[in-house]
Amino acid sequence: MFHVLYKFFSTKPTVITTNNESNDTDTLNYSTSNNDFPTAPILFQQSPSTLYNNTNKKTCTNFQERQGDLFTDSPPTNALVHCVSQDFNMGGGIAREFRNRFNSIKELKSQRKKVGQVAYLNRDGRYLFYIITKRRVNEYPTCENFMRGLIELRHVCEKFGVKGLCMPRIGTGIDKLSLDFVRESVKHVFDGSDIQITMFFL
């Protein structure tokens, strides 16, 4: 039976993959390093496809869902985040709205971020985060790459001192990830942080 164990360490998260025959450890290639990144227990001990069921819902005091428009109803001081492909071909879904409002594709590409990493813009003191969950726009993200991106997102938010983060229901549109999986993943990754998360839906 295959398991994926996500674990935080004092400097950066590590993914430990195990099966019945051997234990292999692969350190993720993160773009940032923060020695103050908090320690936390192992988050996941099951395959992502079977992890979230009705008995495993997590209560997270710094997470809320709100009906409204992400761009007009979110506090102007809060950072915004959404998911993109590595080619930054933001032609559909809410990614197209980010492209139309903020553009800067050249600036994002110049950061040379890979799958599992986070590109960002700073517009008048407001951070805009772009989680790269797949290589090309016509692909679908894996649960593992989505999780890698979330872990990196927390890392980057803490590096920049972000206290408020607003997002759509990331990954659930054209990327077709389960809303339950996305919601519980966000709550697990940001559990214990002082970052207030608001997930918007229309």
Describe the fold and architecture.
- It is globular and about 35 Å long.
- It is built from 6 helices and 9 strands.
- With 202 residues, it is an alpha/beta fold.
- α5 (143-160) packs parallel to α6.
- The chain has a domain at 62-201: Leucine Aminopeptidase, subunit E, domain 1.
- The protein has a 6-stranded mixed β-sheet with strand order 4-9-8-5-7-6, with helices on both faces. It has a 3-stranded antiparallel β-sheet with strand order 1-2-3, with no helix packed on it.
- Residues 50-202 form the Macro domain.
Topology:
Layout: E1 3-7, E2 14-18, E3 23-26, H1 48-51, E4 63-67, H2 70-73, E5 79-85, H3 93-102, H4 105-110, E6 118-123, E7 126-134, H5 143-160, E8 164-167, H6 179-190, E9 196-201
Helix pairs in contact: 5-6
Order of helices and strands: EEEHEHEHHEEHEHE
The quaternary state of the protein chains shown equals single chain
For the CA atoms, what is the radius of gyration? Answer: 16 Å
**Through-space gap between termini:** 39 Å
EC number: 3.1.3.84
InterPro entries: ADP-ribose_metab_enzymes, Macro_dom, Macro_dom-like
Family: Belongs to the POA1 family.
Enzyme class: hydrolase
Which tags fit this structure?
202 residues, alpha/beta, Leucine Aminopeptidase, subunit E, domain 1, six-stranded mixed beta sheet, three-stranded antiparallel beta sheet, globular, disordered N terminus, EC 3.1.3.84, Macro_dom, Macro_dom-like, ADP-ribose_metab_enzymes, ADP-ribose 1''-phosphate phosphatase
